[in-house]
Each structure stands twice: as C-alpha cells, then as structure tokens.
Amino acid sequence: MMSAWDLQGKVAIVTGGNGGIGLGMAQGLSAAGATVVIAARNADKSAAALASIRASGGKASAVTVDVTDEADCKAMVASAVEMHGRLDILINNAGINIRKRPEDYTLAEWQQVLQTNLSSAFLCSQAAYPEMKRSSRGKIINIGSMMSIFGTAFTTPYAASKGGIVQMTRALACAWAADNIQVNAVLPGWIDTELTQTARKDIAGLHERVLARTPAGRWGEAHDFGGIAVFLASTASDFITGTAIPVDGGYSVQG
Asked: Among all residues, which ones are annotated catalytic?
C-alpha cells in the first residue's frame, strides 16, 4: 500500500509556497518524491525555500508569479511544464488578509482580498486544467480556512473568499471528475504563521482563546500540513474529491 503514497516522477506547483503552510506542504511533497515548483512573488524568499528543500535532498525550482494576473498564471504553468515536462499537482495556497470591521473596508481592499485568495485559485486551476487533462490525471488542493466554517467580526472579505474556496472546490470536483482530476480543500485552523503572528498582536487574548478551544492544546505548525498534502496529491486519495478537510487540532469539533 505504501506505493500509493509515492510521488516519484510527479511535478507539483505550490503557490505561496515559499513560506508558512505552503512551504510545509512543498516540503512534504518533496519528501515523498515530487519535484516542486515554488510559485510566489518574493524571489528572495523563494530562493531560501528552494535551499531548504534541496538541503533535504529534494528537487525544486521557482517561478515568480502574480497569481491575480491571468497571463501570469498561464505562464507559470507553461514554465513548470517546460522545466519538468509535466504537471500533476497544483496547490492553491497564496493568500492575504486585511483585518478591519466590515464597515471600515474600502472596495479596493475587499477586491484585493477576493482576487488574491479566491480569483487566483480559479485562474491557476484553469491554467493547470489542460495539462492535467492531457495526462488523464491531476490533483488540485485548495487552501481554505476555519473562516470557511466560522464567522468573525474582523475578517469579512477573507471569510467570503475562503467560503468561496470550498464551494469552488466542489464545483470543480464535479466538472473535472470525468477527466480523473480530483479537487479537494484543506481548512487550516489556527496555525503559527506570519499572518497569525500579526493577528496575535492585533487581537487581545487571541492566543489564550485558541489554546483553550483546541483539544490538541497548541497552535499548528507548517510541518503539520506535509501529510495531508501528500495524501491528497497521491493515488491514495483517488476516490476522494470535493471534500474540505480541517487540519486544526480539533478546534472545529470542540463545543
């Protein structure tokens, strides 16, 4: 059965893969044998991510991309295929958040969050689809959030974008199942990343509330996402599509 988890010969694009959850997933895929393409805006940060993967014996390359730009998304896929000959796995992880009360957002801020978190995932999936259809196999993993399930007062566009990720995942799963492309979402809970470190500074008592509600008794770490990435990217999950799987230490099931 272990061969079902083997990603040798597979090529994966991870958007926002140069840090946080994206890097944790990229490292997991690499450890399972995949060649990973880090796709992000910050070239210096991507170079550091590549170094960490290669230091562990992994195969990786990087492309600089603006995932809100349709032409850039197509160029990203074309570059990955030119470098590595194929595309098997896409992880749509790029995302931002702007924390305000809903009455205080500008339209530009709303659009920025929706474009970066939701429209980008659609554009990247569209760009990847022809390559996956050509090989009659593909895996798309979209990164949602606990805000796909819960509401908060200070994340209106973020929550809307992540709720949209779940519904988009279901729609793409239905549309592309006949092409043997599985599309699933991962819903991170409270994970120790740059985004949540800022949140802990901005929101009094957040750290204590998260620990109190999380049965695992800790914040998640980026490396906690390596396993779910490998599972959803491998043949072990070939009959799983359209799902949204929490990775949250039990946060979403605690009353």
From this structure: 158
